[in-house]
Amino acid sequence: MRWLRGLLIADPAIILSTIVCGTISVLISFFDSTGRKPDAVAQAWAKFLLWASGVEVMVEGIQNIDPNGSYIFIANHASYIDTPVVLANISSRFRFLAKRGLFQIPFLGTHLSRAGHIPVPREDPRAAVRTLQLAAETVQQKKISLLIFPEGGRSHDGVLTAFKEGGAYIAIRAGAPIVPLVLIGGTHVLPYGAGVVQSGKISLRILPPIATTGLTLKDRGRLTEQIHDLLQSELGQKNLPVH
Fold first, then answer.
1. Of 13, 24, 46, 104, which sits with the fewest C-beta atoms within 10 Å of its C-beta?
2. Helix segments in 90-149, DSSP class H
3. Is 242 a member of any domain?
4. Cβ neighbours, 10 Å, residue 103
5. Full domain range(s) for residue 82
């Protein structure tokens, strides 16, 4: 029944809302240099997507962040539903690093580009380093936040995989605190490889910020391992090596 509801109601609603909100966001972006109005459209899109899908989000720890603060949010990633969950429930203005393929999706890709989200060229290591430098400068200069999934992609089975060091690199270079996010339940709502969003409950846990003041880029490996182990503990998973 959940699958049928997703197929007949949720999926068509998501496609239509993505087209409508993506178009509105692009049009607004030409008249709003601050990016605040496109941000509001994106949050409205995320909230509608969750509502249409019958997804209920339980948020813990919202008091740990200042809506006007600038953070590097680092989260586990097991489902495409993770980004709308964060976007709909955290009011901080943030951008995110995303694989280049998402920028090629009609309407969504145009919105991502116009809104200032940052594509990651995984196939070119030098370009990837420049992307991290650009992201750090963007956070520092525009006083916005950044959402990063350091596993580099979705986990197939929900088990936390090794973290890449990009999130720690950006946080240290920008002098911004890291806020770990724990997402639980996404694999039941939209499993890896599934094309239908199903109703269900998702937990979003916002952990206290971790300061990066006084750290250097040499500390990024240790910091990455610290965040990885923290999220792994919150998820109740056994220790795995970090590379």
1. 104
2. 108-115, 125-142
3. no
4. 17
5. 2-234
pLDDT tens by residue, the chain, 243 residues: 554 444 555 567 667 777 776 666 667 766 766 667 778 888 888 999 999 889 999 999 999 999 889 999 999 998 889 989 999 999 888 887 777 777 777 766 776 776 677 777 766 777 778 888 988 998 888 888 999 999 887 877 778 889 999 999 999 999 999 999 999 999 888 887 777 788 899 999 999 999 999 999 999 999 999 999 999 999 986 444 333
Measured CA to CA, the distance from residue 226 to residue 241 in angstroms comes to: 12
What amino acid occupies position 201? K
Strands 94-99 and 145-148: parallel
Residue 62's CB is within 10 A of a number of other CB atoms, namely 12
37 occurs within a structural domain: yes
CATH number at residue 12: 3.40.1130.10
**How many domains would you assign to the chain?**
1
Q: Are 204 and 11 in contact (CB under 8 A)?
A: no
Helix (H), strand (E) at residue 182: strand 178-184
Contact in structure between 190 and 79 (CB atoms under 8 Å): yes
